[in-house]
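Entry 12.
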Amino acid sequence: MRHGKRKGKLNRRTSWRKATLKSMANDLFTFQRIETTLAKAKALQSFAEPLVTLAKNNSGSVAARRQAFGKLCDRGTVKALFDEIAPLYKDVQGGYTRIMMLGARKGDGAQMAMIELVKRTIPDDELLGITKEKKLEAKKKEKKKAKAAAGTKEEKVAEEHHVAPEVAKEIQEEKVIEERKREKAKTEQEKITKKGGFFRRFQRKKLGPKPPK
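Predicted 3D structure (tokens):
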């Protein structure tokens, strides 16, 4: 009987649905994060998590590997599932994946979602496609923005004092030096007050006993 088995049909025939879930599971275990529709993500979650449980509970079983291969039909994915992914979930009782909503798709308005493994071997930078070159470019952009902001400050100072930008730089440096001096003076006053009052440094030193005549 098929009572309550309306979930995860995906408007496909059985063979088509199995092929869809198989390819999506292979991508999930390979890339550990994929983007798809919400309906497909929910169907994939119920298809992929039992495979993780099978690999976790039967890590050294050849029969379990053959059973997983019957579902995935990819030896590389089965090996990664048993050797790399399953050991991460030894102490986890279910809940190996998470689904995050992304919004509606432009063409047909379908609800999009991202499904990923909770524990991953691939770092987030690689998943997001952030390479070292992109990081260096981002740092360069930040430096350029900081320089531009400093230039705008100098222009404001030059406008206020009606001087050339070179003179404005000197004025700005003098202001920074004065602020640092004030901060040092404040810290010194705080140290003095902690030791026992502001006027303690002006007190005379205690004299010892008078030497005998």
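Annotation: Residues 69 and 78 are 6 Å apart (CA to CA). Strands lie at 33-37, 97-104, 111-117.
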